[in-house]
Amino acid sequence: MYTFAIVAMLGLAVWKSVGFLLGLVGKDVESSIRTFLTLGIGVLYAEILDYSAFAGWHTTFRSSWMGPVFTGLILGSMAYVWHNVLGALEAYGRHHRDEARELERRSPKAA
Asked: Could you tell me if residue 85 is inside a domain?
């Protein structure tokens, strides 16, 4: 359970780091380049932290380098999960804010 929470939070860190780096560059990049960058930063974070989620799940690989690399790919994928979940929450909130403004415009004002 804790392993999944760590992966989820590191995925959020990857998502924000990619957004920060692309904000520094100031250019819109293609989707394929953004995907490659996100997965690469995920692998970089897992390698820097020497973290393997598979060790927390008691799974072994043939070589020791595979755990952090595959964990990094999972972190990059989790960044896309965060992107879509937070985008859905933003759309939901925007929809209800706009709906509330519309109701306020239609209702008569009390003196």
From this structure: yes
